[in-house]
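Quarterly update from the structural biology core.
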Amino acid sequence: MCIKFIFPWAIWWLLVMTCAKDIEIPYEKYHVGWQVIGLLIPVFGLLLFLLPLIFFKGEGSGFFKKAFALDDV
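Predicted structure, tokenized:
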């Protein structure tokens, strides 16, 4: 029960409180631009992962099936 309910709640609470504090007072007094860059890099990585899954669906070549097909034994 602790791992399923309490731990995720505590991690979420820490994440929200940390983000709220970093918005009010930048982390270690860094310029806001560095925080924006630090946010954009993971977002771009996630987009580069998800966009091909969503938009670039084409007909498969069948190479995978041919490579792992079991011959009649």
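The chain has a mean pLDDT of 87.
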